[in-house]
Design the sequence.
């Protein structure tokens, strides 16, 4: 405002500067337009999704005939039968089944090794965010009895040079073999038995039967750690104790080799090109055989899109499986999305001009549900399966969960199921085997809207950019507004002259302190974890009270006169400069987060940007007493309520799952899982979201 | 007139003939084939061709009868003292196919091309000779051996490999694909090519269907003992193939029962039979080799079924056993001197008629399980770490049954030591930090100096030379395992240094592990048989040698469309920069200000009215004489004209987008 008086006298500035000034001076309209455009762009993403295509020509999926025959299937059936018989036999130790698997593997001329591991329970290590998995950490409570044994076999490619390998993983619990697990082993076995005598193999094949009694992920991660970053040092804690079970483990290795002369150490097979985790769901859906693909690894990393593409292509076109990616089921029934779809349908002509392959509303709803789940699971930053462990070593991996149509107790049905599953895996392996280079052609940054449709980074960035674009503009507007406003008090004129330009530093200090508080809050659980025998609820309450008290202490320190030494007298505009700094930090935080984990930044922007933009002292609004200001005040209150992390969590959970049975401890458990998986989302919540929210609340209740 | 002509012709013919006779008396060619059943149901076939020629002073221009002229010219031109070139596909399985016999330590080679040569030239000419040699060989064998020319791809190990030969150069190409185009020029060096003799067995499909095949060319210049001068050239050509006999019951493998070894014959594994010997060959033999482990197992079988009493003697007795049966009776049987010894059956090749060609077959009667003898330590190498930044190479050595035997043998007084030589060559873009070399013996970290006898490190130089590390280690015999690890950083290459398919990763060539204290040689009792080159080769005491795996290091690779993007961005930046620079240079500020003031004075009234109206509409209130709202007055440039223009441009863009689809 103030700038404009001088402006008219000045010559016309450069166009780009003028554009900037224009945007800043119209920040209200700009922010409303940008924000709505951002939300609309987000809602438009299912329409803008492109069909996937296989980018790497060398893959050539499905160009060769399947070699897996009923013969291999009957072999696999025998294997399954032996395995399940072993289960029924009373008094058999879990080692027996591993022996059996190893025996079957070595009968196929594979090199078999057992890998003994101690499960590593996840703990919160504040310094281990973003660091590569450390081989030296062995959890202290590893005892003799709690160890798992991974069994894995390697088929060496007959004429290959052994530089690369493809990994097949089947999680398997030796203590309780379900039919699903047995079937997944059967499928892997049928493929393995085929691959043991094919001539076209160029990469070695590793079949890992991961001992999942301590969790699928930890077994696979332990194996990978041993494969990629082994600790050669003997583990003293474990070996110092006298372990009976470890001797049985040694026996296991001994009797495998008939003459005991073969090399018994951990075998390796080159750089891993890709990994497939195979699972069979116990209960299927009623309509047809289907395939679920899980791809999200830690911190929203995705495998190369080509890997999903070949699985999708082969499953749909060759095996006739119905393919699925995870959906938000609750969204499927939601009314508003449906009406939105109908609206988009009615705007079909325009939509078709945007993307000619567009189809009507139901597809929109499906796409939106898939997109929401894709965003949610990427944003969570927790891997959705054992494949996540591979991504930590830059290996592309996905989990394939095949669910049968009907119960697989019938033999004929089971044979057909194994044949289909096996042929799918065979085709995928053959495709990857064709690959000369590692996966690099296709996208790594994408969101799926259906198994065969994706939104690439260039498209989905738009909505995020639109969401955060108003932040710097509003910040600049507020800043120029606050610094240029003519002071009412003439007495403060002299002081003001010197402090005019540095006034924002006060607010910046406040913002910095609040952010430090955020860091403290996010570190608190580490110390809370040290307290023994606590329930999640007490932990949560403790955490909440500690955070609140630390905030209070900080506030008191801040409020003390030492810090308030040179505060300018015009309180009136103080909230504006505070808001401006808050908004800038929110912008910086969101932008940084979008680089680390885009989905988190997107969801976070949806939650934090409106309150940041709207925040205005309630006192001012209530004093004005017009319907507009009151509406704004109530909006602010509502947004402030929603923005509080636990509330946001409960709302999101309610939206995607249901409200039933949500309790306070859930939030604690959720956060615990986040830090256990080293998710950057946890840091985002602690260091960016929570302080920004607190500052916004501070602005709302600002005394002016 | 005609008579003298005829006479001279006859004379010259005679002269030539005599010369030929004289020459052929000295040039020798022999062909041999060794067959050996392997423990994992496969067959090793090892062709061995030896060509020997005298080396006269004028032999550069001389005609050879049997010896390939191209090779002799090569030797003459580059002053080669010794040379070995191998083309290999597949990996030698040291664990199953053995690592302690002459064949594995001579003929197990790393995948791709391996070349080493020793030159008899002054030190400063060695590199030049090597470079020329690589180009010549590249032309001779239709392979990209010329890539070994660049100094980044070869090195000069001093003593860890083929020691005491002089100025040695060594290079490998792990990614070289080996195919028939390499075999054909190799066969051309044989006097009979593959038209007659043993080489006629080389059916291309069956050779290239093999699990491992390695064709090798070895040149030696033996020095005469008397005067130290070179006496001749010996060219050894070997082809080592590991084949799987295609048995009908391959798919019928059942778990739980020991499988019977597949029976095979020459015709079943090669698809051909031998119709006769190469007439130019002095010696043409086929050997069948049963290694120690197998012979012991067979003896046990024989003892069990004692009904085959040892009453029959003579060659017929060798034809069969309780465990196996041969289709042809061997001419001669060589047994090793030691008690549990390997057996070699010899079959000389004669001329055969069309109907009864030579076809050796072996039928197993009982399942036999044995294992090959292993090198003292089983070596494997792997990469550690992840990411594009750094990593580590680890060489793990595990003791085998061989060293266990050693401990039990000499556990008496002096501490038995096991010497291991390690040669590791690393390309320059893998920046190895030699100070990080760590040694763990039996899972305990050890001081390196306690175990390293000698060590030579020549660090890599960027874009000039690879890093070479030679180590002589002394381990106690009772050691169970040892791990050598060394860390590295991954370097960046210039954009045009990337090979095709750069995203595959980069190869680190095999390390060579050798055991100089151990000699892989078989001792046969009959000394008279040493006339056979293959047998003398088998009896030669040579150090045990093994190669580790080739490693694949993923390096950071740029997006190769990046140069285009960079060009675009640079151009944009330049355009903006020069545009604004020109703008500043040609602008006269004072003049413009004056002009603007005039204009503004005219425009201001109209504009303000317009904007007032606009803002009033936006606010939904009748406009009053209130001071201009912040939004309006700040923008004196939002003229309807401008808005119109912007709208027009946007409209054109939308229309264009619409119709372009």
Sequence:
């Amino acid at each position: 405002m103030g700038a404009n008086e001088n402006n008219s006298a000045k010559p016309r500035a450069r166009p780009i500067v003028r554009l900037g000034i224009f945007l800043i001076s119209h920040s209200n309209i700009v922010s409303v337009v940008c924000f709505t455009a951002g939300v609309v762009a987000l809602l438009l993403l299912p329409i803008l999704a492109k069909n996937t295509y296989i980018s790497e020509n060398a893959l050539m999926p499905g160009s060769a005939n399947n070699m897996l025959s009923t013969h291999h299937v009957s072999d696999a059936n025998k294997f399954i039968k032996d395995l399940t018989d072993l289960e029924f036999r009373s008094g058999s130790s879990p080692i027996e089944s591993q022996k059996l698997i190893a025996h079957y593997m070595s009968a196929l001329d594979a090199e078999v090794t057992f890998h003994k591991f101690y499960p590593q329970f996840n703990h919160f290590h504040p310094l281990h965010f973003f660091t590569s998995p450390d081989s030296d950490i062995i959890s202290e409570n590893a005892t003799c009895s709690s160890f798992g044994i991974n069994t894995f076999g390697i088929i060496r490619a007959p004429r290959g040079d052994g530089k690369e390998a493809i990994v097949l993983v089947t999680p398997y619990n030796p203590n309780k073999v379900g039919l699903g697990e047995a079937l997944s082993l059967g499928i892997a076995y049928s493929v393995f038995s085929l691959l043991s005598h094919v001539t076209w193999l160029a990469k070695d094949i590793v079949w890992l039967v991961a001992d999942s009694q301590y969790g699928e992920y930890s077994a696979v991660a332990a194996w990978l750690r041993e494969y990629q970053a082994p600790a050669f040092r003997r583990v003293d804690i474990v070996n110092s104790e006298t372990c009976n079970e470890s001797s049985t483990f040694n026996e296991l290795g001994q009797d495998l080799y008939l003459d005991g002369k073969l090399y018994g150490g951990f075998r390796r097979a080159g750089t891993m090109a890709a990994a497939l985790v195979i699972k069979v769901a116990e209960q299927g859906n009623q309509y047809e055989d289907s395939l679920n693909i899980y791809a999200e690894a830690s911190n929203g990393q995705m495998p190369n899109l080509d890997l999903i593409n070949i699985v999708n292509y082969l499953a749909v076109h060759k095996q006739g499986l119905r393919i699925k990616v995870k959906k938000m089921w609750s969204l499927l029934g939601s009314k508003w999305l449906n009406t939105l779809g109908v609206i988009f349908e009615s705007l079909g002509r325009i939509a078709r001009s945007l993307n000619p392959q567009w189809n009507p509303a139901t597809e929109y709803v499906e796409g939106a549900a898939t997109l929401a789940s894709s965003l949610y699971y990427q944003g969570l930053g927790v891997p959705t399966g054992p494949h996540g462990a591979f991504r930590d070593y830059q290996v592309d991996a996905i989990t394939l969960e095949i669910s049968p149509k009907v119960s697989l107790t019938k033999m004929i049905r089971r044979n057909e199921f194994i044949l289909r599953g096996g042929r799918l895996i065979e085709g995928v392996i053959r495709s990857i085997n064709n690959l000369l280079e590692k996966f690099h052609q296709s996208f790594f940054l994408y969101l799926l809207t259906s198994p065969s449709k994706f939104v690439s980074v260039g498209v989905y960035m738009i909505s995020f950019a639109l969401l955060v674009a108003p932040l710097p503009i509003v910040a600049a507007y507020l800043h120029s507004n606050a610094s240029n406003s003519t002071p009412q008090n003439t007495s403060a004129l002299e002081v003001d002259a010197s402090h005019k330009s540095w006034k924002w530093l006060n607010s910046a200090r406040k913002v910095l302190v609040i952010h430090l508080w955020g860091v403290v809050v996010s570190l608190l659980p580490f110390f809370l974890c040290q307290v023994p025998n606590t329930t999640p609820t007490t932990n949560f309450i403790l955490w909440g009270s500690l955070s609140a008290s630390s905030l209070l202490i900080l506030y008191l320190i801040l409020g003390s006169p030492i810090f308030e030494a040179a505060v300018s007298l015009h309180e009136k505009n103080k909230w504006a400069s505070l808001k401006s700094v808050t908004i800038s930090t929110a912008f910086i935080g969101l932008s940084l987060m979008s680089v680390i984990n885009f989905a988190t930044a997107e969801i976070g922007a949806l939650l934090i940007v409106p309150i940041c933009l709207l925040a205005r002292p309630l006192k001012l609004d209530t004093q004005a007493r017009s319907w507009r200001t009151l509406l704004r005040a109530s909006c602010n209150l509502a947004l402030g309520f929603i923005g509080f992390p636990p509330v946001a969590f409960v709302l999101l959970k309610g939206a995607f799952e249901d409200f039933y049975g949500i309790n306070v401890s859930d939030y604690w458990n959720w956060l615990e899982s986040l830090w256990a998986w080293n998710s950057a989302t946890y840091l985002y919540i602690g260091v960016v979201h929570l302080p920004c929210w607190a500052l916004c609340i501070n602005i709302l209740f600002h005394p002016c | 007139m005609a008579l003298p002509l005829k006479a001279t012709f006859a004379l010259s013919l005679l002269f030539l003939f005599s010369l030929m006779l004289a020459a052929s008396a000295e040039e020798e060619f022999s062909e041999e084939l060794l067959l050996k059943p392997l423990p994992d149901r496969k067959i090793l076939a090892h062709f061995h061709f030896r060509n020997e020629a005298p080396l006269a002073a004028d032999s550069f221009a001389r005609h050879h009868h049997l010896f390939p002229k191209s090779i002799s010219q090569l030797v003459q031109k580059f002053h080669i003292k010794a040379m070995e070139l191998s083309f290999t596909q597949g990996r030698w399985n040291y664990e199953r196919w053995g690592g302690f016999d002459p064949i594995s330590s001579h003929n197990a080679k790393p995948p791709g091309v391996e070349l080493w040569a020793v030159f008899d030239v002054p030190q400063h000419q060695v590199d030049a000779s090597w470079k020329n040699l690589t180009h010549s060989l590249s032309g001779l064998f239709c392979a990209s051996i010329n890539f070994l020319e660049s100094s980044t791809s070869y090195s000069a190990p001093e003593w860890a490999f083929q020691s005491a030969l002089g100025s040695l150069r060594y290079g490998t190409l792990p990614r070289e694909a080996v195919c028939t185009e390499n075999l054909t020029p190799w066969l051309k060096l044989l006097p009979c090519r593959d038209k007659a003799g043993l080489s006629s067995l080389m059916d291309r499909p069956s050779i290239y269907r093999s699990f491992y095949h390695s064709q090798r060319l070895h040149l030696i210049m033996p020095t005469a003992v008397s005067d130290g001068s070179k006496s001749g050239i010996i060219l050894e050509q070997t082809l080592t193939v590991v084949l799987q006999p295609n048995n009908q019951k391959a798919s019928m493998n059942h778990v739980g029962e020991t499988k019977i070894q597949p029976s095979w014959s020459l015709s079943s594994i090669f698809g051909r039979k031998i119709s006769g010997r190469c007439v130019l060959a002095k010696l043409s033999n086929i050997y069948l080799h049963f290694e120690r482990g197998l012979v012991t197992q067979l003896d046990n079988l024989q003892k069990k079924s004692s009904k085959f009493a040892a009453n029959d003697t003579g060659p017929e007795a060798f034809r069969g056993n309780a465990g196996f049966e041969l289709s042809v009776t061997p001419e001669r049987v060589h047994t090793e001197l030691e008690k549990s010894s390997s057996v070699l059956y010899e079959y000389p090749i004669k001329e055969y008629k069309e109907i009864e060609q030579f076809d050796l077959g072996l039928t197993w009667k009982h399942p036999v399980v044995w294992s090959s003898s292993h090198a003292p330590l089983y070596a494997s190498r792997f990469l550690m770490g992840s990411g594009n930044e750094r990593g580590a190479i680890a060489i793990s050595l595990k003791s085998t049954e061989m060293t266990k035997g050693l401990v039990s043998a000499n556990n008496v007084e002096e501490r038995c030591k096991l010497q291991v030589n390690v040669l590791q060559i690393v390309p320059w873009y893998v920046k190895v930090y030699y100070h990080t070399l760590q040694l763990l013996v039996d899972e305990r970290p050890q001081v390196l100096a306690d175990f390293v006898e000698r060590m030579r490190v020549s660090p890599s130089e960027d874009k000039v030379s690879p890093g070479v590390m030679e180590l002589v280690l002394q381990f106690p015999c009772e050691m169970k395992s040892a791990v050598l690890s060394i860390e590295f950083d991954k370097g960046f290459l210039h954009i045009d240094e990337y090979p095709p398919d750069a995203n595959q990763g980069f190869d680190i060539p095999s390390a060579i592990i050798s055991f100089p204290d151990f000699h892989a040689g078989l001792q046969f009792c009959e000394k008279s048989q040493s006339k056979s080159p293959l047998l003398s080769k088998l009896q030669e005491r040579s150090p045990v040698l093994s190669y580790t795996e080739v490693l694949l290091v993923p390096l950071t690779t740029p997006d190769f469309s990046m140069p285009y993007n960079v060009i675009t961005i640079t151009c944009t930046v330049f355009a903006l920069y020069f545009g604004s620079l020109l703008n500043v240079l040609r602008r006269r500020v004072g003049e413009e200000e004056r002009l603007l003031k005039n204009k503004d004075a005219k425009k201001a009234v109209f504009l303000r009215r317009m904007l007032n109206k606009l803002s009033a509409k936006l606010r939904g209130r009748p406009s009053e004489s209130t001071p201009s709202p912040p939004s309006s007055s700040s923008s004196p440039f939002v003229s309807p004209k401008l808005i119109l223009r912007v709208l027009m441009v946007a409209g054109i863009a939308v229309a264009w987008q619409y119709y372009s689809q």
Observations:
- Residues 559 and 565 of chain A are 10 Å apart (CA to CA).
- The mean pLDDT of chain A is 80.
- The radius of gyration of chain A is 30 Å.
